[in-house]
Amino acid sequence: MLGGQAKQWNRSREAGQSEQVQVLVPDRRSHLIDLGLSAVGAAIGIAIALWLVANEQSPFLLASLGGTTVFLFALGHTEPAQPRALFGGHLGGAFIGILCYQLFGDALWVSVLAVVLTMIYMVTTRTIHPPAGANPLFMVHNHADFMVLLNPVGAGVLALFLVAMFWSRLRPGKEYPVKWW
Q: Which residues cross the membrane (predicted)?
């Protein structure tokens, strides 16, 4: 939980007795400081990732990195932000999109198929990372080949992951990743 102050109140129990309850409520100042630090880390992370994967032919090839930035720097404790979901979701979704394009070409039904297969893949492998659900669309639309898995997908995701991991070490009470697998 973001910095906090303890607040207490009495709660009635069924038998008319009361018990003391302590709830942590973040104070506004520490919440704003935490948000500011998250924003600085996010700016550094996405800047490095986009610099690494710059592609003049298709500047929005990995717009899903924007959503990933939100997960890593603001929701780093959640399951979709953990490495299994992060890497598995992005690489798996991109792979499925590329495979669908390579096998069936560029058509609306191919994009639909790629997204649905990616959803099934993420659910069955427990690699749900919502921003990566856009990757198959990018792969089909941009007529991607398998090298795209290395750059921009792999390089962009790895850059964000490393910055998020390093950034969390600089912040007291923060640790990313929470679990590896």
A: 32-54, 60-78, 85-104, 110-128, 148-167
User: What is the end-to-end Cα distance of the chain in Å, rounded?
Assistant: 22
Cβ(164)–Cβ(48) below 8 Å: no
Residue 148, token pair as written in the block:
């795209």
Q: Return the exposure string of 153-163: e unless at least 16 CB atoms fall within 10 Å of the residue's CB, then b.
A: bbebbbbbbeb
**Residue 146 per-residue DSSP state:** G
Structure tokens at 147: 């090298």
d(CA 54, CA 50): 6
pLDDT bucket at 5, cuts 50 / 70 / 90 = very low
Per-residue confidence band for 56, with pLDDT thresholds at 50, 70 and 90: low
Instruction: Report pTM.
Output: 0.81
